[in-house]
């Protein structure tokens, strides 16, 4: 396992975070067990924020909202052969349309334009730890 400096990511790591790869998001259920789901995500290296778009009533959104209130952490991980990265940090749920916009734009750049939803939400992780090999 290799810890990376979130303030000084290599060009290779940044490129890996821009390439189209699916990932997993890990949040916690009320009983403390992990809830792991496949997701697409975007990463903003300037803000050090990973964003997963979803809808407000999804289990990942419900978990993220509850975890944010408790100051808990979440993780998003992507793997491609021998390359892998896990981004960790405090989690929050964003539902305000203006604050949701960066998540939608990041997803559109990395994957494709998402379908319109009135109940769009974004799970945001304030990344303070990155492990892996990019």
Radius of gyration: 14 Å
Q: Separation of termini?
A: 12 Å
Query: In the CATH scheme, what's the topology name?
Result: Pnp Oxidase, Chain A
Shape: globular
Number of domains: 1
Query: What percentage of the residues does DSSP assign to strands (E)?
Result: 35-45%
In CATH, the homologous superfamily goes by the name: Electron Transport, Fmn-binding Protein, Chain A
Q: Mean of the pLDDT scores?
A: 96
Described by strand count, sense and barrel closure, the largest sheet is: 8 strands, antiparallel
Q: Which runs of at least 5 residues are low in confidence (pLDDT < 50)?
A: none
| N-to-C SSE string, H for helix and E for strand | EHEEEEHEEHE
Structure classification: alpha+beta
User: How much helix is in the residues?
Assistant: 10-25%
The CATH class, by name, is: Mainly Beta
CATH architect. name: Roll
Number of helices: 3
**Total E-strand runs:** 8
């Amino acid at each position: 396992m290799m810890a990376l400096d979130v303030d000084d990511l290599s060009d290779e790591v940044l490129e890996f975070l821009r390439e189209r790869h699916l990932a997993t998001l890990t949040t916690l259920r009320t009983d403390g067990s992990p809830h792991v789901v496949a997701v697409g995500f975007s990463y903003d290296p300037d803000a050090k924020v990973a964003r997963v778009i979803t809808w407000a009533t999804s289990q990942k959104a419900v978990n993220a909202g509850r975890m944010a209130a408790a100051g808990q952490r979440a993780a998003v991980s992507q793997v491609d052969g021998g390359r892998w990265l896990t981004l960790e940090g405090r989690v929050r749920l964003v539902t305000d349309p203006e604050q949701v916009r960066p998540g939608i734009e990041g997803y559109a750049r990395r994957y494709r334009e998402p379908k319109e939803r009135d109940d769009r939400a974004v799970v945001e992780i304030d990344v303070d730890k990155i492990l892996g090999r990019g």
